[in-house]
Amino acid sequence: MSEAPSVAARPGSRNLVEVVLRLREAGVVVFLVVLGLAFGLATDRFLSVQNLTTVASSAAILAIAACAQAIVLITRNLDVSVGSMMGLVAYLTADWAATHPGITPVEVVAIPLMIGTVLGAINGLLVAYGRVPALIATLGTMSLYRGFTYIYAHGQEVTSSRLPPWMLSSVDARIGGLPILILVSIAIVAVVAWLLHAYPFGRRLYAVGSNGVAAWFFGLRAERVVFFAYVACGFLCGIAGLLYAARVGTVTVVLANGWEMSSLASAVIGGVSVSGGSGTVVGAALGAVVLATIDNGLVLLRVPEFWRMFIQGAAIVAAVAVDALIAEAIRRSTGGRRR
Questions:
Q1: What local confidence, expressed as pLDDT, does residue 13 receive?
Q2: Dihedral sign, CA of 174, 35, 24, 82?
């Protein structure tokens, strides 16, 4: 008895997949609007211009870290050293700026980018060429990078009084009434999204994440793609670390502690699949806004910290469950099951 054609052979299956993937980001936007309205009804202060600016500023740096995490997730890997990379970059940059009074803005920008790129390359070498599982490799480098920060700092912090004044004032500057920090974050997310969409490297990321074996048969070198994904992740963490140091002023050895989970949660909430091959950096950035909105709204409502952690954790679990359901729907629509 002959086998019936798979669902993938049907004319509407590809359109169905595209619609489902678009709905993921649209669903995040709808959820964000509903969340904002709910908090707005619960407290008058939430929808004020000042508070919304605070929410956007809080989400700005996390959005960049979420983009870094999303690039790696698309390749069916992950990076739990994001927070440690940001912390190490921030401390080394702040310490260098504090001990070199004549440092120029170009140097302040170049130093964290180079450090972040090197740290990302180390992760990439371990995962892509060393064949170490991504979770194990980045768990190790998470402790390694954070430990090096402690050793280098000798328990000392870099206070804001030692940093160049222009470094601190730059992130507080406004253009058209909006903090430059928000504008920089939007620009970075837009550029990364455009690069992944317009250049072959972006398509290779999705191909490797969707099916690494098939990508290999089509001539793609999966190791190289995964390596450069981690390099890009480190580069973006360098930017995030620099902005974080400039924003907080006083840089400690525990800076960005826990951001590996926040960036991962933002990406997943924003529709980036933990099984690889789907999602966008724009969705990851929207996920960062969702987390910042939840945290801000709960603080205004004076919800205890343990309840805030519980609610944020519940949002993450719900996002993972939705991701699994969508992945199953896509698998069925593309012929995962045959009659």
A1: 46
A2: positive
Residue 272 contacts residue 73 (beta carbons within 8 Å) = yes
Query: Looking at the domain assignment, is residue 186 inside a domain?
Result: yes
CB 62 within 8 A of CB 82: no
SS3 213: helix
Structure tokens at 149: 């920060």
pTM: 0.89
Pair 167, 246: CB distance under 8 Å = yes
2 located within any domain: no
Q: Is residue 266 part of a domain?
A: yes
Q: Which domain covers residue 284, as residue numbers?
A: 11-333
203 Cβ contact list (under 8 Å, min separation 6): none
Q: Name the amino acid, one letter, at 83.
A: G
In 3-state terms, what secondary structure has residue 100?
Answer: coil
Task: Show the tokens assigned to 293.
Answer: 């909105």
Q: For residue range 100-109, what is the model confidence (pLDDT) as tens digits?
A: 988 899 999 9
- Cα–Cα distance measured from residue 332 to residue 98, given in angstroms and rounded to the nearest whole number: 57
Question: How many structural domains does the chain have?
Answer: 1
Query: Is 270 part of a structural domain of the chain?
Result: yes
* C-alpha–C-alpha distance, residues 56 and 84, integer Å: 23
pLDDT, tens digit, 9 for 90 and up, residues 20-48: 556 677 888 888 999 999 999 999 999 99
**CA distance readout (Å), 155 to 119, 123, 146:** 22, 26, 12
Q: Tell me, what's the pLDDT at 308?
A: 79
